[in-house]
Amino acid sequence: MDDFDKDQVLQWYTQLEEELLSIFKYVPPAKQNLAAFSPSLANVIIESCGLLDSILRQISPDPALVDGRSKPRKDLDITDYAKLYAAKLGLPVAKSIVMITPAHYLSPFNAWIDLSAGGNYRPTTWWRTHTELKHDRIANLKSARLEVAIESLCGLHLMIATLPEFARAVLRGGWVLGKKTSPQYTIEILEGSGSDSLLVESKLFAVARGIETFPDQINDFHPSLFNASERVIDFFGRSY
């Protein structure tokens, strides 16, 4: 996957996010609407998960060593990706801020937490829904809920924001909107070697990169610790 491919991934994500935002115009993401379902939401879920699968396949070695056995990259599946990257990238405990009032966290890969302790793989609910829809869209249409679409897109965004391979693409794509000292240092933070913190933002989500992690309670989130953008500061109504 070269730089052009990575830029296309960000554009693809943005198209999916815009599609979901357009659905919000008719079905606002209020708690009482999260169970709403539609073919349009099914498309967001299937495309988000399909792109995530492709990203993980592209960055994986060929062959990959999974559970002590060599496996061709073309045969890898989500179970293998979880074993390869859950602990390496800290995915089970990673949080995203959802920029929808009221602000809240999502941890889209939390189902993989047992893997970090040497346990078994458990699928995320949104990936299970994607698999069901992929095999029979009509029979499983009612599973294509607004809540699942938000979670699947959040998982895709978090993965792009977290992978060191996408650091330069994320910067090029304008996903780092807050205060930056220099492009080189920003890339170091995005790659996981910097000594400061920042946010990787889209219209719907914000992911922390660097030495700071999000507090347990979102009310304790301090934008200044993450060199947050004016947009995030205004959304939370505080800069401290």
Describe the SSE topology:
Elements: H1 3-24, H2 39-59, E1 64-66, E2 69-71, H3 78-89, E3 96-98, E4 104-106, H4 113-116, H5 125-135, H6 146-162, H7 167-172, H8 183-191, E5 197-201, E6 205-210, H9 230-236
Antiparallel strand pairs: 1-2, 3-4, 3-6, 5-6
Helix pairs in contact: 1-2, 1-6, 2-5, 2-6, 5-6
Structure description:
There is one protein chain. The protein is of the alpha+beta class. It has one domain (3-236). Helices cover 45% and strands 10% of the residues. It contains nine helices and six strands; from the N terminus they run H-H-E-E-H-E-E-H-H-H-H-H-E-E-H. The protein has helices spanning 3-24, 39-59, 78-89, 113-116, 125-135, 146-162, 167-172, 183-191, 230-236; strands spanning 64-66, 69-71, 96-98, 104-106, 197-201, 205-210. It has a four-stranded antiparallel beta sheet. It has a two-stranded antiparallel ribbon with strand order 1-2. Helix 1 packs antiparallel against helix 6 (146-162) and helix 2 crosses helix 5 (125-135). The longest helix is centred in the N-terminal third of the chain and has 22 residues, at 3-24. It is globular. The termini are far apart. The mean pLDDT is 96.
